[in-house]
Amino acid sequence: MSALNDDIREQIPDPVAALVARAARGDDGAWSALVDRYARRIYALAKSRLHDADLAEEVSQAVFMSVFQHVSGGRYTERGQFEPWLFRIAMNSVRDQVRRMARRASPLTHGDAAAVSMEPAGASGDDIDRLRLAVSTLPDADQEVLSLRHQAGLEFKAIAELLGEPVGTLLARHHRALHKLRTLLAEPAQSGVSHE
Amino acid sequence: MNDHTDERSLDRAMDRLGEHDRQTPDAGFEARVLDSMRSQSVPIMPGRRRKSTAWIPFVTAACVALTGYIVWLPSFNVKIPSKAVVAEAPVADGSTDVLLASFDAMDMLVADSDEMDEHLDWIELRIDTAKLDLSPDSTWQDIGGSL
């Protein structure tokens, strides 16, 4: 059944692959479509890790500049792996920024996390702010899995390809990250956040 | 069961957070990304390497060195006579009794020495005699013999 699904999948033309092929030929419409499809997902991924809207936009632009150079210069070979490749570039850019920020500043304390991650008053609900604050206190590896899944909107299979881990391991990591998050949200006195 | 429900609700809450983050940028966000992408320089074509300019400083240095060699180096070998020049026999074999401390010293020696004057007078005399002996038929041996 799975082999049959794979056969069917191979016969259906991949819309992203077709877009990338058109983009490689210099089709402006294809580039616009790729940006429409992925730019906000990359932005959300970057913002969830960097807690800075301007920096997140900078990272998004840098990622697409890199993609443009590779695809236009013929250095990208289409093998139906555009999405994992694109988000790998994004993850590496975000990791570089996180390292740069860590070198510049002292480690993020709980209070600092609250300061940088809170939206301006009235911009979003309290629940979202509380959740964002709780996520920012999780270990980096957990934040990475959560942001790839929920901010970037990737399927577990794509995340597994991107991080080079089995899907089962990824599912377990995601489950553990949610469990830690739930524990954090359930301890308002210690974490400063409350369960919804 | 309760844990499972909690996890599902948390999963959905995370999805809402992700959706909220994706909606955060303004309407011009995509246009800015496209602009930044297009504003960069022309991508490098495959199989076409950018010409290196690393050779320029080396070639410049080589040209300067060559010019220096041609223009300045020959002048380094010219001995400019000065009053402090010391002349002496390369080997102390007694062939030179006089140590010429300088050109001025040599002049003084020649001027004060009667013996040297006599030698010079004799040499001049022999030259004058040789001049008188010269004829169109003279051979080099004759001229040499007269000296």
Principal-axis shape of chain A? globular
Share in helix of chain A: over 70%
H/I helix tally of chain B: 7
How much is the average pLDDT of chain B? Answer: 72
Helix/strand structural class of chain A: mainly alpha
- Count the E strands of chain B: 0
Order of helices and strands of chain A: HHHHHHHHHHH
Query: What is the percentage of strand-forming residues of chain B?
Result: under 5%
User: Which value, in Å, is the CA radius of gyration of chain A?
Assistant: 19 Å
**Unreliable residue stretches of chain B:** 43-48
Largest interface: A-B, 43 and 29 residues
User: Which of globular, elongated, flat, extended, rod-shaped describes the shape of chain B?
Assistant: rod-shaped
Largest sheet of chain B: none
| C-alpha termini separation of chain B | 136 Å
Q: What's the assembly state of these chains?
A: heterodimer
Distance between the termini of chain A: 42 Å
Q: Low-confidence stretches of chain A at least 5 residues in length (pLDDT < 50)?
A: 108-123, 189-196
Fold and architecture overview:
With 196 residues, chain A is an all-alpha fold. In chain A, 76% of the residues lie in helices and 0% in strands. The longest helix of chain A is centred in the N-terminal third of the chain and has 23 residues. Chain A starts with a helix and ends in a 5-residue tail after the last helix. Chain B starts with a helix and ends with a helix. About 4% of the residues of chain B have low confidence. Classes of the chains: A mainly alpha (196), B mainly alpha (147). At the A-B interface, helix 3, helix 4, helix 7, helix 8 and helix 10 of A face helix 1 and helix 2 of B.
Task: Give a quick precis of the structure.
The complex is a heterodimer of chains A (196) and B (147). Chain A has 196 residues and is mostly helical. Helix content of chain A is 76%, strand content 0%.
